[in-house]
Amino acid sequence: MAESQSPLLYDVADRIATLVINRPEQRNAIDAPTARAIQAAVDRFESDEEAWVGIITGAGDRAFCAGMDLKAFAAGQGPELMDAKGGFAGLISYPRTKPLIAAVNGAAAGGGCEIVLACDLVVAAEHAVLGLPEVKRGIFAGAGGCFRLPRAIPRVRAMEMLLTGDPIDARSAFELGLVNRVVPGEGLMDAAREFARRVRDNAPLAVRETLALARAAFDLSEKELWARNNQAWERINRTEDAREGPLAFAEKRPPRWKAR
C-alpha cells in the first residue's frame, strides 16, 4: 500500500487490485486531491498487466464514501471534482475495461452511491446504507445516479429513492438487485476478495469482452450489439487463451491464462 496519508491507497496481490478511499475522518468524502488520486489509481489499474480485477472500498467501517466533500465544493473545488476523463471522483465515467467490485463498508451516499452504481459487482456490509439525497440539498444526482439507478432496480423504487432522497439498507438493496452479496461487516473484504477471485480465475480477455458487451446492452440497438458481438468474437478467437480453455478442459486441468 502507499503511505497512509494518501487519500487513496492502492495494492495488487494475486492479480486483484485493491483501491481504498482513505479519508475516514471525513467519511471518505471526495475532495479534489482524492478525485485526482482515484483517477491516477484507476489509470494504474487499467495499465497494470498484473491486475485483472479490482475492488474499491473506503477506509474504516462508518462510510464507503459520503459523496462530494461539501466543504471542498463550497471552497470552489467543484470543477476539480469532475475530471474530463473519469467524471466525478475520477471514476464515474472512466472508460474502464476491467471489472471493478464495490465493497461497501458503510454509508454510500450521494456521489458515494454513484461510485457503487459505476462498479460492476457489489458486496455490502450488513450495516451499509445506500442513498441519493441530493434533492434534499437543492441539487440532483448529477454523477449518473438519475439514469443509472432506474436501470439497476425497478423504476418505481428508483423514483422513490431519487425523489425522496431517502436511503435504503443493505438488505433492501440486495432484494432490489442493487447489491450482489450482503455479509457481516468484519467479513466484507474477505467476501469481496473471494468474489474477485471467482472473476480472476476466468480468462481475462474474455471477461473484458463480456463486460464491454454487457455494458452496451442498454445503449445500442440489437443490430449494433450483434455487430459488436461478432467483432469481439473474432478478437477472442485469435487469442491464445481461446485455445487454452478447451485444451485445459479436455486435459482435465486448470487453465493457464496468459491474457493474450
Short description:
The chain contains ten helices and twelve strands. The protein has 260 residues and is an alpha/beta fold.
Quickly count the helices: 10
The total domain count is 2
What is the level 1 CATH name of the largest domain? Alpha Beta
User: Could you report the average pLDDT, rounded to the nearest whole number?
Assistant: 93
Task: Give the beta-strand count.
Answer: 12
Strand order of the largest sheet: 1-2-3-7-9-12
Class computed from helices, strands and strand pairing:
alpha/beta
Radius of gyration based on Cα positions: 19 Å
Description:
The protein is an alpha/beta fold. It has 2 domains: 8-200, 2-enoyl-CoA Hydratase, Chain A, domain 1 (Alpha-Beta Complex), CATH 3.90.226.10; 204-250. It is built from 10 helices and 12 strands. It has helices at residues 32-47, 70-81, 111-118, 145-152, 155-164, 170-176, 188-200, 204-216, 222-237, 240-250, and strands spanning 8-13, 16-21, 53-58, 63-65, 82-83, 87-88, 100-104, 107-109, 121-125, 129-131, 168-169, 181-183. It has a 6-stranded mixed beta sheet with strand order 1-2-3-7-9-12, sandwiched between helices. Strand 5 (82-83) and strand 6 (87-88) form a beta hairpin. It starts with 7 loop residues before the first strand and ends in a 10-residue tail after the last helix.
